[in-house]
Structures are given as structure tokens and as C-alpha cells.
């Protein structure tokens, strides 16, 4: 099983590199000429350093970068423009902060992603392995970074200092272009260093009639679903010092679930985080056999079980077309197990001739426990409406009043997807 999971995780990035997703777009070359064609549109979690571009469906693919391209666009979705500018290098991750203010920067030629533009100012972003930064430009000027710093107080290592200089920068711009808009000026004082907050403020600075003609689409998106599944549960016992598990059955019960998909980039839809909440049941039935005190023991254990599962998953569409997608998903299941009506029927036989001696039945109190397991799924999506899949979770341990149990899950189901991305 470990080899299976390792192979699956190694294959996903290889498939990612191999898959192309050409969309209508254009580039602007160094001469300022616009060349229409098709851009290989990816789930860029960092600003791309280069892109693949072709002028026709069957033409040669050319690599475009900051050395030969001023700008490029995926029509209706994204627009990137090259700038040579100063980029801050101070870390903002709370687990890796500097002691004292870090104002270090580097000057590089990069592609900035346009978030929103207009007649007065334009808002851009740049994400690399360090962090996400936001830049603002007046007119056709080179963008300036909106400054946000977090660092450890050098005089008290138990405290951090947060510098929200970007708020002052935005206050200057709203006063310059929309001096009568006191409401937005007040909102800036409480704004977060986030795309959604900054985009709203920049739209106000540009005014209702000052938006850019370049159309871009937000990358963020959510989708919801409801579904039904046939959930198979196989229960075996870990046994005791003198009893070993001899047999078990796979019991199938209906499962109902609801979930939410959060896209890395809704316009591409290749990678997403799926969060699912499900409820199902199980009727456990397994046998134990052993010997003790000169007798053969045969035990049959039965119980009822309810299982509520929270299952976050990483889902990758390795075949990704507008009307059909094929995916793999790997996740972690947090399974709340509630066992009731647990009974142990024990029969005793002579060790010498196998003759029946006696039997007894014990009934146990209800029990509950948490099972954490790895989940895997493979499925396909049709017309962004129906999701059909099969899934498997290897054995995990659950406590009962009798003996510790191992439970594995098998399932096949269908989801109905709804809501705009």
C-alpha cells in the first residue's frame, strides 16, 4: 500500500508537466506589436517566468519570457505585463520572521499579473516562493510595491511588529483622485493586505467610469456538491493473546455527503482542494478463534456502527476539458465512529474431541472513537455537473468495548455539482 501511495504522488507532478491547455490569447513583443494566438494556460501558483505560445493550432510552439515579450494575455482571463522593478525580500511567514525590520529588495525583470486597472491607477500582484506582493501604478508609470512588513520586535522577542505602510500609500491616492470619497478613505484604515480588499479600494480610486478595457477574471472560486455513495466497510479484529481473526465480511450501506471545492485557479480548474462531510453506517460481523484452558474458543462479534467523516482532499484533473475531466484525489479522513449494540457470542469446544461444551453471550456498552486514515479516489466529471467516482481507504484502527478493530472502506458514488466557481 505504501508503494501505491508513493507512486500516485510521484505521478501527479509528471502528469501536470505533460498536460497542455491552450486558450486564445496574445503576446506583445519588444517592438510593441500584438501577435494573436494561443497561450498554454496553467494553474500558475507563482507568476510565470515564461510561457508557451503558438499562433495556430498546428504551428510551432515558442517560449516567451521577459527577454522577448512585453506582455501576454489569456483572453478574458488573465493579463501579465513585464516590468523591471524593486521587489521586497522580507519574509512575512510568522514562523520565519526577521528580528528587526528587513527592508532588503532585489531588482528584477518580471511579469506582474494585472488584478484591476483603470484611468487613474492599476493594481498588480507578484507571487514567488517567498510571498505574494501587491504593486500599484499611476497611469503608465512603473508600479510601486504596496509595502507590508512583519518582524520580531528587537526589544522584546515575544512580540511582533506589523507595518501597514500600504494603507498610507492608498490614502494618498484616494485623496488625489477621489477627494470627496470619505467612506473609502475610512475603509482603507482597516483594509487587509489581500487581493479582495485592495481590488475594491483601487476600483474606488478609479471611479465608476474609470475601469480598464483589459478584461481579467478573478482566479478564486468555490463550487458545492451533494452526493450519494455505496460505502463498503470491511471489519477485522486485531485479536487478543489467545484469539486470532479468522473471517469478516464487507457490508455495504448508503452514504450521503455534502462538499465544497476551492479552486487554485477557477479559470483553469486543474487543481483544487475538496472538503467533504459524509454520514454512513455499518453492521460489523467478524469471527475469532483460539484456545485457552484446554478448550477451543469460537467467537462471533456483531455491532452497529455510525460513521461521520470529514475528508479534506487534494484533487488533480489529469484530463481537463470543458465538458469532461478525469481526476485522482488523495486526502485524509477524520472518521468519528459510534458503536452500539455490540455483542460477543462465545462457544466452547473440547480441545481433545471437539465436542461442544457451552456458550455465552455478552453485551457491551456503547463506545466511540476517532479513526484517521488516508483516502484515495479516482473519477470523472461530466459537463461540470456530475461527478462519478470510486474510492478506497486502507485499514485503520477503531476502539470497541471488545477488541481493537481494523476497518477499511470501499465506495462508489455520484455527486451533483452546483454553484458558480
Automatic annotation (TrEMBL):
UniProtKB keywords: Signal
Keyword Signal (UniProt): yes
Name of this protein: Outer membrane protein with beta-barrel domain
Keyword set includes Signal: yes
Species annotation: Mucilaginibacter gracilis
Signal peptide residues on this chain, from the entry's feature table: 1-18
Amino acid at each position: 500500500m505504501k508503494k501505491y501511495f508513493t507512486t500516485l504522488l510521484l505521478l501527479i507532478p509528471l502528469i501536470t508537466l505533460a498536460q497542455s491547455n491552450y486558450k486564445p490569447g496574445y503576446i506583445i513583443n519588444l517592438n510593441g506589436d500584438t501577435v494573436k494566438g494561443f497561450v498554454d494556460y496553467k494553474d500558475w501558483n507563482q507568476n510565470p517566468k515564461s510561457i508557451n505560445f503558438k499562433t495556430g493550432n498546428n504551428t510551432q510552439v515558442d517560449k516567451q519570457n521577459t527577454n522577448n515579450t512585453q506582455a501576454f494575455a489569456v483572453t478574458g482571463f488573465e493579463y501579465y505585463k513585464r516590468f523591471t522593478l524593486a521587489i521586497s525580500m522580507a519574509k512575512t511567514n510568522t514562523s520565519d520572521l526577521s528580528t528587526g525590520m528587513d527592508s532588503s529588495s532585489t531588482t528584477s525583470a518580471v511579469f506582474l499579473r494585472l488584478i484591476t486597472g483603470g484611468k487613474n491607477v492599476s493594481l498588480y500582484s507578484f507571487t514567488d516562493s517567498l510571498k505574494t506582493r501587491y504593486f500599484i501604478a499611476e497611469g503608465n508609470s512603473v508600479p510601486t510595491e504596496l509595502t507590508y512588513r512583519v518582524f520580531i520586535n528587537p526589544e522584546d522577542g515575544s512580540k511582533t511588529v506589523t507595518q501597514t505602510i500600504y494603507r498610507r500609500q492608498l490614502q494618498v491616492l484616494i485623496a488625489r483622485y477621489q477627494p470627496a470619497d470619505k467612506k473609502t478613505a475610512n475603509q482603507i484604515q482597516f483594509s487587509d493586505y489581500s487581493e479582495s480588499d485592495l481590488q475594491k479600494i483601487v476600483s474606488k480610486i478609479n471611479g465608476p467610469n474609470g475601469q480598464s478595457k483589459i478584461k481579467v477574471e478573478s482566479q478564486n472560486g468555490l463550487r458545492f456538491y451533494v452526493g450519494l455513495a455505496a460505502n463498503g466497510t470491511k471489519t477485522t479484529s486485531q485479536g487478543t493473546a489467545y484469539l486470532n481473526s479468522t473471517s469478516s465480511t464487507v457490508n455495504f450501506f448508503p452514504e450521503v455527503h455534502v462538499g465544497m471545492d476551492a479552486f487554485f485557479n477557477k479559470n483553469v480548474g486543474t487543481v483544487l482542494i475538496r472538503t467533504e462531510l459524509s454520514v454512513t453506517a455499518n453492521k460489523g460481523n467478524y469471527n475469532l478463534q483460539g484456545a485457552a484452558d484446554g478448550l477451543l474458543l469460537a467467537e462471533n462479534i456483531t455491532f452497529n456502527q455510525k460513521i461521520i467523516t470529514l475528508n479534506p482532499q487534494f484533487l488533480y484533473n489529469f484530463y481537463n476539458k470543458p465538458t469532461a475531466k478525469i481526476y485522482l484525489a488523495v486526502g485524509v479522513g477524520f472518521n468519528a465512529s459510534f458503536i452500539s449494540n455490540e455483542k460477543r457470542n462465545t462457544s466452547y469446544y473440547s480441545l481433545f474431541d471437539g465436542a461442544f461444551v457451552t456458550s455465552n453471550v455478552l453485551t457491551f456498552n456503547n463506545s466511540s472513537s476517532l479513526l484517521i486514515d488516508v483516502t484515495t479516489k479516482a473519477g470523472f466529471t461530466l459537463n461540470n455537473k456530475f461527478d462519478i467516482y470510486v474510492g478506497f481507504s486502507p485499514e485503520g484502527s477503531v476502539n470497541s468495548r471488545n477488541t481493537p478493530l481494523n476497518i477499511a472502506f470501499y465506495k462508489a458514488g455520484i455527486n451533483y455539482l452546483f454553484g458558480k466557481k
